[in-house]
């Protein structure tokens, strides 16, 4: 009876493990889109960053101190990486009032769309019918309303960045060990990051790099540099290969 109860609890805890973690593809470019180096201005929106821990049951518990440390590190790492992106990068700066609310809404929308791309296009076993055929178009959008975020910036494109890090708690790691002894896989921690280039006139997603298993501890400066390099790997129009820095 005791073992049966333990197995039942284990099954409940495993309920949060998604097949999306098995996604194979990580990036895509909208068909026909080419961005030449030194050809335009790109508006970099302040990244949406969240850091916390993962409870034994797999629930996410945000940590304000970790999040602030990660945000500061990522801001500095992005500033260092901008010279390799091949175009003029301008920051959106701090926004207030309605503008800040609109940006927060579009940052959340970007996160949802990126997650949908992973689930319904990047993960081959779960593709939507319209995405199943070979060479199916990468066709996703945030909608034309995003153009309001570009007012007076002079930018044609916008760069959204979203990161969420869940560090496995001690209880979660213990569960992972015991589950492994029973031949069951339990994920301890999740580190997802999305970077996307958006047409600020139409809202169309032109390029996306999205991964549910990002590397780099964003609470440290070195980890933040590695994360930024991974996020911007193969960025359209970039003047340097960031792949080596992402290792």
3D architecture notes:
The chain has six helices and eight strands. By secondary structure, it is an alpha/beta fold. Strands 1, 2, 3, 4, 5, 6, 7 and 8 form an eight-stranded mixed beta sheet that branches. Helix 2 crosses helix 5. The longest helix has 26 residues, at 97-122. It is globular. It starts with a helix and ends with a helix.
* Percent of sequence in beta strands: 15-25%
- In terms of structural class, how would the helical and strand content be classed? alpha/beta
Number of strands: 8
Q: Tally the helices: what do you get? A: 6
Low-confidence stretches: 1-23
How far is the N terminus from the C terminus?
A: 47 Å
Anisotropy-based shape: globular
Helix content: 25-40%
Nearest-integer average pLDDT: 84
The largest sheet, given as strand count, sense and whether it forms a barrel, is: 8 strands, mixed
Report the C-alpha radius of gyration, rounded: 19 Å
- The SSE string, one letter per element, is HEEEEHEHEHEEHH
Topology:
Blueprint: H1 2-13, E1 27-29, E2 41-44, E3 48-54, E4 60-62, H2 64-81, E5 88-91, H3 97-122, E6 157-168, H4 170-181, E7 190-199, E8 205-211, H5 221-231, H6 243-246
Parallel strand pairs: 2-5, 2-6, 3-6
Antiparallel strand pairs: 1-8, 3-4, 6-7, 7-8
Helix pairs in contact: 2-5
